[in-house]
Amino acid sequence: MTALLAPYPIGTSGQPWGESEKAAWLARQSWQRSYETDVLDAIERLRSRFDVSEYGRLNYVPASYPLLAIRSRDWRDDLPTMLVTGGVHGYETSGVHGALRFAEQHAADYSGQANILIAPCVSPWAYERIQRWNPHAIDPNRSFRADSPAGESAALLALIAPLHGRILMHIDLHETTDTDETEFRLALAARDGVAFEPGEIPDGFYLVDDTENPQPAFQHAVLAAVAKVTHIEPADAKDEIIGSPVVAPGVIRYPLVKLGLCAGISGARYTTTTEVYPDSPRATPEQCVAAQVAAVRAAVDYALANAV
């Protein structure tokens, strides 16, 4: 995407936002869909087969949001644990619905083989507003660290703290959308008082591996499964995807812990972040959800086959 974009309508060029700018940004956000209907009701239907727990609650005016986790009913400490997270960025729809569909249709398949722990919608306020940040203009997916300023991140960290180092696989489900370029990166540059640098939105599915713990065979196994559902993003003319060097077809790497990213929270041997492109003319919303489910299943299967 190379078209010139209008300056973000909040803030003064070169100056980071203060409280008045954050308040002006918050006033622009509007309720667009229901966390209760889309997520809580779906989880309620799973209670007969799984244990469901409230691991935190976000009290944001005018609503209070319970944060729910789904876990295997036959949990055993001698089994490997697989962590699935979705909706860290609330606007990334297929991550939420992919996690829920995996829970509904496939999680029970691993009974007696693995413990499954799913946090399907980490950021419910942002889910309802199709937004990247929480109401304090904080990105939860840069805030997974001690003393996190994001309640969403702090709650998830507390949930998995007793399991840290005992989780074998963690897959975090995301999307890269056109609005990353037209809204969210513009807002980020304005919030931080820096110049906006236009980029390109990749048309296809890709994965983010961990610079500090690369697992190329694991990433390949996940992509091979997803390729049966939707197309994999090729490298661009610079041999990059979204500004990062491609280390294998469809794979880039970030230092997950250093950047405060969700996929770095567990100390798992196998970690990945999915990125699907819902605005592609070559993919439907159903394909995006199915791709997330395929990624989770492949990730669990690979981790089980390579647990030793």
Automatic annotation (TrEMBL):
What is the required cofactor set for this protein? Zn(2+)
Keywords attached to this Swiss-Prot or TrEMBL record, sorted alphabetically, are: Hydrolase, Metal-binding, Zinc
Superkingdom in the source lineage: Bacteria
Pfam families, from UniProt? AstE_AspA_cat
The entry's active site is 275 (proton donor/acceptor)
Q: Which residues form the Peptidase M14 domain?
A: 31-307
Q: Give the UniProt family note.
A: Belongs to the peptidase M14 family.
Its protein name is M14 family metallocarboxypeptidase
Species of the source? Dyella caseinilytica
